[in-house]
Design brief:
globular, alpha/beta, 26% strand
């Protein structure tokens, strides 16, 4: 497995993954935020690749020296194999290189479902916060 920055040629595969993995409502919200984040800073969109296939994606953003893990999605057959953990670790490293002071989980109802996953990575309840503005209008 390889974690790398999103490339334009990944768009269709990432969109399909998000549609497959997320609820319809979550996917709609995420696609808009995904497009905006790509226009601001595509280096904060990471993909997990295995045997040439995209198996996971993580969308992050930075707002006022705080890094937010906005959305993570992993293909069902690759869950519990360290894909999500690797994506989060890679994003935290990107944030660290950019001198982000605090890494937080965007606290929305969709990420609440993943609380056990994030807690297994050492995240505390205090790490789940709403950005000062939703990703839909946060300037990257």
């Amino acid at each position: 497995m390889k974690i790398r920055s999103f490339q334009l040629s990944d768009y269709r595969y990432v969109a399909e993954l998000l549609k497959e993995v997320l609820s319809e409502e979550c996917c709609e919200e995420t696609m808009g935020a995904f497009a905006r984040q790509l226009s601001w800073d595509s280096e904060l969109v990471l993909v997990a690749e295995s045997a040439g296939n995209i198996t996971g994606v993580l969308i992050g953003t930075i707002d006022q020296q705080k890094g937010y893990v906005y959305r993570i999605a992993v293909q069902e057959e690759f869950r519990r194999q360290g894909v999500g953990r690797a994506l989060v670790t890679s994003m935290k490293n990107r944030f660290r290189h950019r001198k982000v002071l605090k890494v937080l989980i965007a606290g929305d109802k969709h990420n609440e479902l993943l609380r056990p996953f994030y807690e297994s990575l050492g995240c505390q309840p205090v790490d789940f916060v709403r950005p000062s503005q939703p990703l839909s209008i946060v300037a990257g």
